[in-house]
Specification:
The protein has 7 helices and 36 strands. With about 700 residues, it is mostly beta strands. The protein has a 6-stranded antiparallel beta sheet. A 6-stranded antiparallel beta sheet has the order 26-35-28-29-30-31, with no helix packed on it.
């Protein structure tokens, strides 16, 4: 039963900052005293409504809902039609208003995707209560104590601490007033919030301290390049660095007195020049960066060399360009080893290295990558396969995942990927709950040596520290058209590892088909085929009125070729009307002899799914109203028509990460007095040595 007592957290004091805080604040709402007679009247009304619901419920059952007592004996019907339980409640409710944020300022759309996902303005706002909204906050994903967050910025490992900076609005739960939040961790899981790293207080970043990247130089010196939005909304590149490199928490930052260090070059729009990458060192003794832009509808990556991070030389041409992809933002460029399971420093190159080019497409807000070859002398990168070039081929993630950034973790010799996970509900709900957005669990990134055509993404090993009690389910038979409950207790915080085997005789005898399958247009888990769908129903309630299927769909094509697709279906994830409900996913390579495998991390309103060792991933945001707290359940399902499925699973309950707010006691050695901007060369002795 859902806990009806939780309340939204009270509004904590603003995070401390190394700068003078921006003015602002909100007043507390007026609280009206409720009299005893009013309480009695309300109680009587609730009793009357409850009796009416019981009477109606006993007169008949919805034929689309399959009940617990006979799930194993009858076909499971995953209805595709929308749930109308809350239509009456919503008739008089507030209506959604079309909102746009960010585009006028020169960045990608930062409001919800509701309107691009079929939920139009005028849709009734669901009557969310505090219990529902409190449940949505995650237990082991990184998020600020309150307010809006978006892009990950400048992640790095320094003097025993992982540092994470992020785009943050200290004034509210919507995009705007962007500054840099800052947190540190020993293990990428348990975080300590620190004061704001940089605020918008100079003419060159007064309209936003936007996305940037860190570069660690010799002798552990750090430079941070970031995009500032000027007082005239021109995008410029700026330099910052720690005030004290001996401080392992890097609590104070200095902006270079000569900022900006780069402005849009001729032919580039003033709002089309942003998000510098981590620099890599060339054989000529220079540091090289790339910055995203566009020319008409061609996405491009500009290239610059520097010796001191103050003066820059633009290389002829571009690192890469792809027509029709639009503005490239949050570019990432890094090497991966073709032969090793270790990550590589950003400056590494050689015969056993491939380079990953990644961009976040402003036009569709998805992250795309491609593998290819980099020529340092020409400053050019060429994809291995032009048919799956950047922006037209493979995505990091086929769900909610954007503005990602990697860093090389020299502590464990691995490349770690961060990704911003936005909301899929309405802005109204975000404002009511007081926060918006998460960061995905950091992922390791490796070249897939078996396929040679894609990356492997996997949750960092430290997440396993949160595993609690474990349950094993060995070779569970799931017949065609059936669902099987898995007794794991409350299913709100889980780490699931599952393998599925089809009846190979059925696969071999299955009729060939010319079906062009797509997760997005397939109709979701309700569409039945000979060999799928099958998988897990996550965050489901007992009646299955709310559930999020994460599943495989196998298609036998002409010539006997078997193709496998990995999908996640939000269409029945919630009875609420003002949330995104779509089907996501893509083809996943499955090699001969491999079982179908998936790992799923469930953490309240986020589900992260990794198929075939991380070849294809899907991150899903869901907002159930009934499948929450103790009412959340987990099921196996098989909606195929011709084959049974055998599933083996290991499932762990997950502990909370207990992200801590900042307190001076936690970092008593650090000073939090306002920064005085000093001359660059006096604080950065390595500057002269790089000339």
């Amino acid at each position: 039963m859902a806990d009806t007592r939780p309340l939204l957290p009270s509004d904590p004091d603003a995070l401390p900052t190394a700068y003078t805080p921006l003015p602002g604040g909100s007043s507390s709402p007026e609280i009206r005293r409720i009299h005893v007679k009013e309480v009695l009247a309300m109680f009587a009304g609730v009793v009357m409504v409850s009796l009416l619901v019981v009477i109606i419920g006993n007169t008949g059952q919805d034929g689309n809902v399959y009940h617990r007592n006979n799930r194993r004996d009858k076909p499971m019907l995953l209805a595709a039609s929308p749930n109308k339980e809350t239509a009456t409640k919503a008739e008089k409710a507030e209506k959604l208003q079309a909102v746009t944020r960010g585009m006028a300022a020169g960045v990608s759309e930062k409001s919800s995707r509701l309107y691009s996902s079929g939920v139009g303005a005028g849709t009734p706002v669901y009557p969310w209560n505090n219990s529902m909204l409190s449940w949505q906050r995650t237990a082991f994903h990184f998020q600020p104590e309150k307010n809006w967050m978006n892009d990950p910025n400048g992640p790095l490992f320094y003097k025993g601490w992982y540092h994470f900076f992020y785009q943050y609005n200290p004034k509210g739960a919507v995009w705007g007033n962007i500054v840099w939040g800052h947190a540190v961790s020993r293990d990428l899981i348990h975080w300590l919030h620190l004061p704001l790293a940089m605020v918008a207080d100079q003419w060159y970043d007064i309209n936003g301290v936007w996305t940037g990247s860190a570069t660690i130089l010799p002798n552990d010196q750090i430079v941070m390049l970031y995009t500032g939005s000027t007082n005239e909304s021109v995008q410029v590149q700026c330099l910052a660095y720690p005030a004290d490199h001996k401080d392992p928490l890097l609590t104070k930052w200095v902006k270079y007195s000569g900022n900006p260090v780069l402005v849009p070059p001729p032919g580039i729009g003033v709002k089309d020049f942003r998000d510098p990458t981590t620099a890599w060192y060339t054989t000529e003794g220079k540091w090289r960066i790339t910055i995203g832009s566009k020319v008409n509808k061609t996405g491009i990556s500009l290239v610059y060399d520097t010796k001191d991070f103050i003066k820059y030389e633009q290389l002829d041409g571009v690192l890469h360009a792809v027509p029709g992809t639009g503005m490239w933002e949050c570019i990432d460029f890094y090497p991966v080893s073709k032969t090793s399971d270790k990550g590589l420093d950003t400056s590494q190159n050689g015969a056993d290295v491939k380079h990953v080019m990644k961009t976040s497409l402003d036009d569709d807000r998805n992250d795309y990558y491609a593998l290819g070859s980099y020529n340092e002398k020409t400053g050019k990168w060429v994809p291995d396969d032009q048919k799956i070039d950047v922006g037209i081929g493979i995505r990091y993630d086929y769900g909610k995942f954007y503005a990602s950034k990697t860093f090389y973790d020299q502590n464990k010799q691995r490349r770690v990927l961060w990704g911003w996970i936005g909301e899929s509900d309405s802005e109204n709900a975000d404002v009511k709950k007081g926060w918006a957005s998460l960061q995905g669990i950091p992922r390791t990134v490796l070249f897939d040596q078996n396929t040679g055509s894609n990356l492997l993404q996997w949750p960092v090993e430290e997440i396993e520290k949160l595993r609690l009690n474990k349950k094993n389910f060995d070779k569970v038979q799931v017949k065609a058209g059936s669902v099987v409950p898995l007794d794991v207790g409350t299913a709100t915080q889980l780490d699931i590892v599952a393998e599925f085997e089809l009846d190979q005789k059925v696969v071999e005898s299955a009729a060939e088909s010319n079906e062009e399958f797509s997760c997005q247009t397939s109709g979701g888990a309700a569409k039945r085929g000979a060999l799928g769908p099958f998988g897990l129903l996550v965050l489901a309630d007992d009646s299955l009125s709310e559930r999020t299927p994460v599943y495989f769909y196998v298609v036998k094509g002409s010539g006997g070729t078997v193709n496998t697709y990995f999908c996640a279906d939000q269409t029945r994830s919630s009875v609420a009307t003002d949330v995104v409900k779509q089907v996501s996913g893509s083809y996943v390579p499955v090699l001969k002899g491999e079982k179908l495998s998936v790992r799923i991390l469930v953490d309240h309103s986020i589900i992260e799914s990794f198929a075939q060792g991380g070849r294809t991933t899907i991150t899903t945001r869901v907002y159930p109203t009934q499948a929450i707290y103790g009412a959340a359940r987990l099921f196996l399902f098989n909606n195929a028509t011709d084959t049974s499925v055998t599933a083996s699973l290991q499932i762990w309950q997950m502990n909370s990460a207990f992200v801590r707010p900042f307190s001076p006691d936690a970092a008593s050695h650090a000073s939090f007095t306002p920064v005085t901007f000093l001359q660059f060369d006096s604080l950065m002795p390595w500057s002269s040595k790089l000339h």
